[in-house]
Amino acid sequence: MDFIRDTMLPRAWRWFVIACMVFFVINVLLIITSVLVSSFGTGWFTGWLPEQFTPKWYGEAWKEFQLQHVLLVTVEITLAVVAISLGVGVPAAYALARLQFKGKSLVMLMFLVPLLVPPITYGIPLATVLYQVGAGGTMWGVILANLVPSVPFAVLVMTPFIEQIDPRLDSAARVFGASSLTTFWRILVPLLMPGILAAGILVLIRTISMFELTFLTAGPDSQTLIVALYYSMFAAGVRAQQSVDAMAVIYMLTTMTGLLIALRFVDPSQLVGRVKSQKV
């Protein structure tokens, strides 16, 4: 019995988890592969592969779904969200990492709430307020809605980077006459540049893939790529399915490129370690 409990059961559980992970990964890869193959196929009614392949669906998707305008709007909104999130998030993370005050844990918890709660929970009342003040359906409305989770996310990413910098550097700079602003811009910002780049790229990816808040607040001229992709799903039957799949591939390539760039600057274990240390 001890052999079964101490050896067989843990080993069986480990193989069960591995089998579930392999099953999940294979399903995801098969779905991505089918969409990719379909985006190049002229017709796919019988057999394992389409009868012929052609890249024309990407050109048709570019014209039919006005991807030039959609991509321009997506770039404008994501860059604005990244700039404002870093402009607010970096000083806030510096204050939270350096200062000790009563209620600091409560403030940190409030920063985490928009990340823990599903966006649709606060997205509907937020969209209602934005439409009442006239910002709903505009580009600025989409930017404001996306800032709600993006600023706390930037704070969460930047705080571990700031905590790694020795606070005695601040004191040494002030001893030599540097003001707080000079110390921040000429000493801390260069040291924090890897963290700022990581936070900016992660916020960019999060904004591109944020569907709920963008969908609730975007108008006809302020749709980002993911919202346009959602509406393109309803075009299946009106337009060729291959052009819809081509648009899905463009979206996947956009997000995957950003994710791969982000992984070169971000160590996920660093963020996990930060969360664990807060729990302790």
Task: Give the gist of this structure.
The protein has 280 residues and is mainly α. It has twelve helices and no strands. It has a domain at 86-224: MetI-like (MetI-like fold).
Can you tag this structure with a few keywords?
single chain, 280 residues, mainly alpha, MetI-like fold, 0% strand, MetI-like_sf, cell membrane, cell inner membrane
Descriptive report:
The structure is a single chain. Residues 275-280 have low confidence and may be disordered. It is globular and about 75 Å long. The protein starts with a helix and ends with a helix. The chain has helices spanning 2-38, 56-64, 67-98, 104-116, 119-132, 139-163, 168-175, 180-209, 212-217, 225-233, 241-263, 268-279. The chain contains twelve helices and no strands. It has 280 residues and is mainly α.
Q: What string, H for helix and E for strand, traces the elements in order?
A: HHHHHHHHHHHH
Provide the β-strand percentage band: under 5%
What structural category characterises the helix and strand content?
mainly alpha
Query: CATH superfamily membership of the domain at 86-224, which one?
Result: MetI-like
The overall pLDDT average reads: 82
Shape: globular
Total DSSP E strands: 0
CATH class of the domain at 86-224: Mainly Alpha
Number of helices: 12
Poorly predicted tracts of residues: 275-280
CATH topology of the domain at 86-224: MetI-like fold
Helix percent reads: over 70%
